[in-house]
């Protein structure tokens, strides 16, 4: 994505609790002379801020023009990940565009292939098995989180349907009461005028 040099850009990630999140990013600055983005942006860093669903700041750190950040969520819900350059140029001068390449991996732990090749076959199978077990635990946590969200949604839907039913009953009773009152008022009017 593209942002201005002094602009803040945020990404929302829906993350289950107790989940590791790893993010890699790279910043490129627009070059006026070549009319293209430079391969890197030396001297330019990024403030990375992660906020929990309750508004608590989980991570706030300054990184370089290319880096990796990670955090573990302790609450399930929408986490806000914000990026802002550490440019000190004035807003009038800092009109340069930045391109940010972002890769966010939620709950994944990648195997280090070079370390696995250095070990013998038994250790390789053991490490791969541990990796699979870890991924199974992650999938289980993800399913529990989705089940919890579905249960909240179903409860909210049932409450809404119940409220609609009671509102319809109240409207019907009001309509019947007004109808009876109008008939009684008309009948009393006709009796008073001696038309009946």
From TrEMBL:
This is TMD11 protein. Residues 8-106 form the GOLD domain. The chain crosses the membrane at residues 164-183. Keywords: Endoplasmic reticulum, Membrane, Signal, Transmembrane, Transmembrane helix. The keyword Repressor does not apply. The keyword Iron-sulfur does not apply. It is a single-pass type I membrane protein. One of its GO terms (cellular component) is endoplasmic reticulum membrane.
């Amino acid at each position: 994505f593209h942002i201005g040099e002094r602009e803040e850009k945020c990404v929302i990630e829906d993350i289950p609790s107790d989940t590791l999140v790893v993010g890699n990013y790279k910043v490129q600055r627009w070059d006026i002379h070549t009319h293209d983005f430079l391969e890197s942006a030396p001297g330019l860093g990024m403030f990375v801020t992660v906020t929990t669903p309750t508004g608590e700041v989980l991570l706030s750190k300054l990184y370089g023009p290319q880096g990796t950040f990670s955090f573990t969520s302790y609450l399930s819900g929408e986490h806000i990940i914000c990026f802002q350059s550490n440019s000190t140029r004035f807003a009038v001068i800092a009109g340069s565009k930045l391109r940010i390449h972002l890769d966010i991996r939620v709950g994944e732990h990648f195997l280090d292939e070079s370390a696995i090749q250095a070990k013998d076959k038994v250790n390789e199978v053991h490490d791969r098995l541990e990796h699979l077990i870890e991924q199974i635990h992650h999938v289980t946590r993800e399913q529990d989180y989705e089940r919890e969200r579905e249960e909240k949604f179903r409860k909210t839907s049932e409450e809404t349907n119940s409220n609609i039913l009671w509102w319809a009953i109240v409207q019907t009773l009001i309509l019947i009461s007004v109808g009876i009152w109008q008939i009684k008022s008309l009948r009393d009017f006709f009796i008073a005028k001696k038309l009946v």
